[in-house]
Specification:
Radius of gyration: 15 Å
Helix content: over 70%
Distance between the termini: 25 Å
Largest sheet: none
Number of domains: 1
Order of helices and strands: HH
Mean pLDDT: 76
Number of strands: 0
Length: about 60
């Protein structure tokens, strides 16, 4: 149950970050297309996944 909640927290954060990047892409292009959402998803994965990995690394390092 705890692992599911942790996964949900990371997934919702990733989803919100992706939507924010897609919205920024839409504002830059002044129109919404599926490619803008795709770019948001791509850049979200590129920027959010390393953030999660580094946060997990430093939280483990702090305990030891």
């Amino acid at each position: 149950m705890i692992k599911l909640l942790v996964f949900a927290r990371y997934f919702l954060g990733f989803l919100l970050w992706t939507l924010a990047l897609a919205l920024a892409e839409m504002l830059v292009r002044s129109s919404w297309t599926w490619s803008s959402f795709g770019y948001g998803l791509l850049f979200g994965a590129i920027t959010y996944v390393p953030f999660i990995l580094s946060a997990r690394y430093f939280s483990r390092r702090k305990k030891n």
